Request: fold
Amino acid sequence: MRKTIFITLGLLLSHHFSAAQAFLSTPIDGNHGIDWIIVNYVDWELDGHLDHNCGSKSYDGHQGTDFTLESFAQMDSGVNILAAADGVITFTQDSLFDKETEGDVSKLLGNYIAISHPNKYYSYYGHLKKNSLVVKEGDSVKAGDIIAQVGSSGNSTDPHLHFELWYDSLYVVDPFTGPCGNPQSLWLDDLPYDTSFGVFESGFKLKTQLTINDLRFRDSSYTSSLQIPPSSNSSLNFWSHLYGLRTNDELRIQWLTPSNIEWFSFSTTIDQDYWYYYYWTFINHENLAEGEWTVVLNRNNTKIAEQKFEVEQLTNVGDEHFQSDCEQLTSESLTTLQRLYGEELTITDMSGKQLYLYENEAFPSGIYQLELKTRDFICRVKRKIVHGK
Reply:
């Protein structure tokens, strides 16, 4: 739909809203600010973007509301999508890949559900998790019924629910009210318009050339305490997943030695409002002082995140001796080695798939090929692990 048509329809909707009654319930399980946040609203601006509250929480041509999760790990845990009102399922699309990160507009809503409501409104639920739909065309649903789970299928970069509302299948409707939008809300319980700043998570990762997808697909164990040798071939990355950054915010990171002396710092100025933001920086380290280091991230001179890591000289082990130890590895010692050596340790299953498991996780039973390369030794061994041992 062309943007000019959308704006015209948005203005025409004021007539319908003069008699409209609120009828929508929140279409996602959980609580705002805890389980999800709203990143984007319907765009009301002809040139550029503007949300219903005259803010920047939208993007050019956006026709719905994005209820966004913290990470793919949260998506994998299962977050339910709920019918926003009573109605009949008129269309479903399922079975599409649900961990998209590229934002390809040709893929549209991906897996989605359409519901027809008795008052001539239609609601759409997009980017759903593959095979999570529990309804089919023709089913009747009540407000609050579980219909699917949040995914990242279609034109999506991170797991979220795209909720879209239409009147009579002809007019895009913004269900929120505000000075730059409609005069009346269609929500039974209005959701807050939240522009607050926050930190989802922060942590470390030993890897050269870290990518944004390493953070999208992070595990919560990324935030575990880290031990590293004084020198390493891998970059040490500090990362933080943020929301609510505003234009001209300054982010400053400080690397502090065990003596609490600033060893290195770096600052950057934010060029626009970002409501969902991945930040990371790295050091290539040699001859670091042993002891507990601290990394501090500041926003406008206020500390927003702090992480510590331990620098400790590792014992050098010859090939022959280490080969013997390698034969005795368990899943617990493997995860410790992964934490210490990062990308220098690779573990693959018999299909050739590379694995990375974390503390408090156990390897599934099976046979694995292990290879650990450092400057001091190389270990290669095929290991059978049964019941996480």
Observations:
- The chain is about 10% helix and 35% strand.
- Residues 1-18, 315-327 have pLDDT under 50 and may be disordered.
- Residues 198-311 form a domain with the Immunoglobulin-like fold (CATH 2.60.40.1930).
- The longest helix spans residues 3-17.
